[in-house]
Amino acid sequence: DVCVDGIPVGFLPTALAKGVVATLRRLKIAGHERIPVDLEVAYIPPPSTGVAGEEDGKGDGTPQSNMPFPGLYLFTQMGRMIRPVLHLETQKVEYIGPMEQPFMNIACLPSDIQEGITTHQELEPTNMLSLLSSLTPFSDYNQSPRNMYQCQMGKQTMGTPAHALPHRADNKMYRVYNPQAPVVQTARHGEFQMDEYPNGCNAV
């Protein structure tokens, strides 16, 4: 199936799907007047086998019900989450959406590129991280569970609980009266202007 903004508009033979997707991406990156630069081109290929576990020789006859319905899904609506990556074929920046990412091969580093398989590369290796996780300095020196723990603690931080404090009528609200900027910061800290609404103090 081919769907545009959730509405089925036609059918596309599986043999032509990858070529159509590649052409749509090239036109989008080139700035074609009829193709939005923020178009999401999500191609979900049909499963290679109809039986779960068949690839490793352990098929039990169970259909792959955990796979999304195969098809070409195009999204043009406003308010979608998109992010930039490098399109290797054209060496230009392309904006991609969340539905197409699981079915794309995106390299973090040039050494991760597999010829004929990898189609995109992260503009920076840390772009794969969320906002909170990208604020942890020297995260590559921590154990992975510690980084995840810090992300959860960061979500609970209430140094600046509201942006209109002088105009609120709450009976009780806690906030940090003497917040501080972190002594050690990541590049993302400044890019996202985190010091405008600081969340805590430096531990001494």
UniProtKB/TrEMBL annotation:
Keywords, ordered alphabetically: DNA-directed RNA polymerase, Nucleotidyltransferase, Transcription, Transferase
Entry GO CC: DNA-directed RNA polymerase complex; nucleus
Phylogenetic placement of the source organism: Eukaryota, Sar, Stramenopiles, Ochrophyta, Bacillariophyta
Organism, scientific name: Corethron hystrix
Domain (DNA-directed RNA polymerase subunit 2 hybrid-binding): residue spans on this chain: 133-204
Signal sequence extent: none
GO MF term list: DNA binding; DNA-directed RNA polymerase activity; ribonucleoside binding
Family (UniProt): Belongs to the RNA polymerase beta chain family.
Region annotation Disordered: where it falls in the sequence: 46-66
EC number(s) given by UniProt: 2.7.7.6
Pfam families named in the record: RNA_pol_Rpa2_4 (PF06883), RNA_pol_Rpb2_6 (PF00562)
Source organism superkingdom: Eukaryota
Name of the protein: DNA-directed RNA polymerase
Listed GO biological process terms: DNA-templated transcription
PANTHER family: DNA-DIRECTED RNA POLYMERASE I SUBUNIT 2 (PTHR20856)
Domain DNA-directed RNA polymerase I subunit RPA2: 9-47
